[in-house]
Each structure stands twice: as structure tokens, then as C-alpha cells.
């Protein structure tokens, strides 16, 4: 850090380098927030969460009984103890809009917090009006839904839905119809992800151990099936020695991270479709029939990208391109099922089967100053009203 300061003064480093290096260091120092917590609204285990992309403020969460909650994460400067309130909710099986089975996935509409989507083991994908907290469109599948993802595209409003029968259905939010289906997986589809750099490219992962890349304009067969050994990428190639449970592209779309029931993470070069052979070690977890959610640190707040991965009741943090385990978050009492990162600040939210959502932050001057002021006020108050007087 000292050398960076010297290089910056000498004009050898760009102005943005030091703040990013400092922020990167902070990701290894996360701990439970000292002064903030979420309102206790969940009566059941949490299965999925997502922070909205537009304002980085509203956190969606869903539970095993089909309930959905929206909580406000806004930080109130100068307030010592804060509770992030639940601003909207829909309890499972209580209204015509409610899901009747466990929530599989929740996604905000990428361009507007007025819309979000939910999928469930009750075989439905639902489009919600956030302000009214009611369903405006309902897509019914023939088998339970394990996962879905909304394209961040401008030219189309397509949603990919992965189901137990191994089919990926492409739903059009504008028309309210299913435009086409992708058939190649032999077992349930556990995870789907749209490429952030190519709006027609979709990655899918399944219990058949395969990851397929698709061009949704050409649905007869996938573009490629990823091979963990970097061999022939044919029908029988496998990406993991177990179910493929999680997929996520890097923000620039150049790399894809995958997670499997073999308790391994893999990093793939998208352009060459090759396994980069990064060794993250074994990541123990109990996921099998549920998507394994993980998250990346935002490029704006990290010089080197880090990967945050649920592992039983903990969250392990890895350097993306080296595989080095730099930290572990401990705070939940049972399995962490979902995680998201606030790209406006160094802040992480984790949801668990222990019915709680926790806030993780790097200890910062705002929190310390707030606590210091409160402590001084407390001392003055105690001296003034001492029992000895």
C-alpha cells in the first residue's frame, strides 16, 4: 500500500488504482454489521434473494412456504442502530397471487424496480407489479421449476426457465407466451444464465453434469457442451463430476463460473470455451436439488475480482483468478442458500435456512464515528444522572 502511494505521487500509477486496491483489501475484512440488521419477517427458510440492479436498495427474498418479501437496505447516516424494514410482502398460499410451494428463484426486472419475477416448485413463473404486490402474468409449466433468469437485453424481454423435465422454456414477458423450448439436457435443469455481453447467448446447467451454450435464435441444438478436461466437446462431455448447480458470468461476459454437486468450482473462458483449471479446493455444501447461488464483487469496488460462495453455514471468499481462499464469513446457524452484493458499497447480504438475512460490512469510519458519538453521549448522560448524587 505504501509503495502504491509513492508510485501515485511519482505519477507511475493511475488515480483509480489506489482506491480499488484499498477496496479489494476491504473485501477480505468483512464482518457482521455492528449497527444494522433486517426486520425479522421470515417464518421459514430463505431459498432465494436478489438486490435490485437500478438503485441497489431493495432486497427481494423468498422462502420455503412460497412467501416473498421486499426489504429496504438504505443506510441512514448518523443513526446508531438501524433496522432495514420490510416494505412489502406476500405470504405463501394466502392470496390468488401467492405461490403454494417453495420459491425457487427471484429476479428483479433489470431496468425497473416496478417489476419482478418469481418461480416456484408449484410449476409457475409469475410476473409481479411491485407497487401493487400482485401478479400480472402467470406462466404455467408442466413440471416444477428449479431456476429462471431474465435477459438484460434491450432488444427482447425473454426469460429462460429451467424445469425438472430437463427442458428450458423461453418465455416472452411482452407477449405473455412461451416463444420456444430448448431440448438437449437429459435430466433436470438446475441453473440458467444469460450472457451480459451477448443478448442471444444462454448458458444452462443440469443434473446430467453438462453445461450447454445456446444461441436462442437457433434452438435445434446447443452451440457447445463444455468439457472439464478440455477435450472433445461432444454430446457426452461433462463439465462436472456431478450435478451442475450454479452458473454466473463475470460482468464483462468474458468468463463463466460454475458450481457442482462434486463440491468444485470451475472458471471457464467463454471465447475459447475452455476450463481455466483454477484450483479453488473442495467447497463442501449440501446442495443437490437446489440452485447453488454465489456472487462476485463488483468491478467498481475491486481491483481483483473475488467470489463469495456459500459453504454449509459459512461463506467462503476466493480470489477469482488464483483460487486463493482469503476469508470466511461465519454467522448463520444453518445452511446459507443465497447471497448478493451491493455494488454501491462494500456490503453483502446472506440468506439462510435459519430464517434470517444478515448484513456483512467492512468496518468503516461511518460506523465507528456513529458508535463513538453515541458512546460519548452515553457517558455524559450517566455522569449527569448518577445514582450517587
TrEMBL record:
InterPro entries linked to this entry: Rad28/ERCC8/Ckn1/ATCSA-1 (IPR042238), WD40/YVTN_repeat-like_dom_sf (IPR015943), WD40_PAC1 (IPR020472), WD40_repeat_CS (IPR019775), WD40_repeat_dom_sf (IPR036322), WD40_rpt (IPR001680)
Protein name stated in the entry: Uncharacterized protein
GO BP, one annotated term: protein polyubiquitination
GO cellular component: Cul4A-RING E3 ubiquitin ligase complex; nucleotide-excision repair complex
Primary gene name: 100641134
Classification via Pfam families: WD40 (PF00400)
Swiss-Prot/TrEMBL WD repeat ranges: 96-138, 182-224, 237-278, 329-370
PANTHER family with a match to the protein in the record: DNA EXCISION REPAIR PROTEIN ERCC-8
